[in-house]
Amino acid sequence: MTERVAFQLQIAPGMIAEYIARHSPVWPEMLAEIAASGRRDYSIFLGDEGRLFGYYETDDDAAARAYLAASPVAARWEASMSEFFVGLEGRADQAAAPLVEVFNLHDQLTASAP
After folding, report:
1. CATH architecture of 3-112
2. Catalytic site residues?
3. Which of 16, 92, 105 is nearest to 54 (CA)?
């Protein structure tokens, strides 16, 4: 069963342009590790004042987190990104708290279909 995972992070003031630059593009080896972890349809959106909203799908989020936690590539990437975040202890890929999903159009349409 597909798990949908969303999270929110905050970029430090004055770091937004550099954060965007570091994602344009992401290291190819990091992209490969994200895919190998089982995460797919992964997007990060930028909101007002450096608020980030991330979303991805996976079949097993605990396994995806464990895979990335053990990855030397992910460790290097997360270390290089740690300077950007406010109020976060630890690696962003491990410490960002998931948001609670309260609505999904597909799920509700499927449940109400005859």
Report:
1. 2-Layer Sandwich (3.30)
2. 23
3. 92
